[in-house]
Design brief:
Chain A: Pfam families: PCuAC (PF04314). Chain A: InterPro entries: LpqE-like, Lxx211020-like, PCuAC_sf. The complex is a heterodimer of chains A (166) and B (202). Chain A is 17% helix and 48% strand. Chain A has 166 residues and is α+β, with helices and mostly antiparallel strands. In chain A, strands 1, 2, 3, 4, 5, 6, 7, 8, 9 and 10 form a ten-stranded mixed β-sheet that branches. Chain A starts with a helix and ends in a 16-residue tail after the last strand. Chain B has a single domain, classed as Glutaredoxin. The longest helix of chain B has 15 residues. The two termini of chain B are 27 Å apart. Classes of the chains: A alpha+beta (166), B alpha+beta (202).
Chain lengths: 166, 202
Amino acid sequence: MNALLNVRPRSFVSRTLVVALLAGVSLSAVAETRVEDPWVRATVAGQPSSGAFMRITADTDSTLLSVSSPVAKDVQIHEMSMTNDVMRMGPVDAVPLPAGKTVALDPEGYHVMLMGLNGQIEEGDQVPLTLTVKNAKGETEVVNVSAPARAAMAPMDMAHDPGMTH
Amino acid sequence: MNEFLTRRQVVTGMGLLGLGLLAGCDGSTTALDFKYGKDLSNKIMGRTFKLTDTDGEVKTLSSYRGLMPMVFFGFTQCPAVCPTALARAAQIRKMMGEDGKTLQVIFITVDPERDTPQILDAYVKQFDPTFVALRGSLEDTAHVAKEFGVFYEKVPAGNTYTMSHTATSFVFDSRGNLRLGLSPSLSAKQCAEDLLTVMEVC
């Protein structure tokens, strides 16, 4: 760097580059919502809806505002809760994504409901999902993921039980 | 197959207590001591229901006499607890080996308006081909839910609805006496252990 700084014109170029690089880094930091292990539950013929599940980690305090998918006419975010063995279900407006905390959208809590499916979702299908996330500064970010469809039987502790493999 | 449970293992464990319990098959519904589930032996509930299976045949509890019916209420558009409970039931059946053949899983829909016989049949059979689904009119559904003390309600969701409902699995002995309530929080293995206790009685 010292050699570069000694030569004025080049120093300017180098500085601009550094600024640009820094800007690039900070831009990508803003756009840092990580989606892991997305999947959709496969359906049987005629079943009009299904659920999508994933783990989301945002870098800053963010909010998952909505999800859309070409496979369904209406995509909503629902929350499930269990009290005294009564399962309660209902739509929520948004899901808080605290900075650095992995939020699970799984059968035990929040999940994405694909309602009014355009067709059957078969095991192995790739379902495109588009997540809209708002960060702490109020900027929105769009995250596209492709979620494989898993069989209805799949997401059980069965998968971890070597005795039950077929 | 370390997760394989048979009746023999449970009988050995129960010893003399098991012999005492065997008397329960005379129609009396002595309270049972379950390790994980809730004893429902003395509850007057779930005795009468009359619903239609996916082939259009009318079914009552006595249609499953000699089997160990396990009844779960749900709906096919249920994203979480229903597929989890049915997948667990399929796992329990396998885990119980030969004994598992007497376990008759019965899925009763709380959403008969949307759950057609065709959808119901395909839905339950993807978990296990022996599973059956029953359905009734809105009135029948309300009646059977009341019989079991099961809560359910529609929850508005955009232009459509989702549902809240009780997620207990209700188990009858082979004489048609209600015996056991299994919470959705229990594992397949825990359920299988309690089911074997039911089988020892009747």
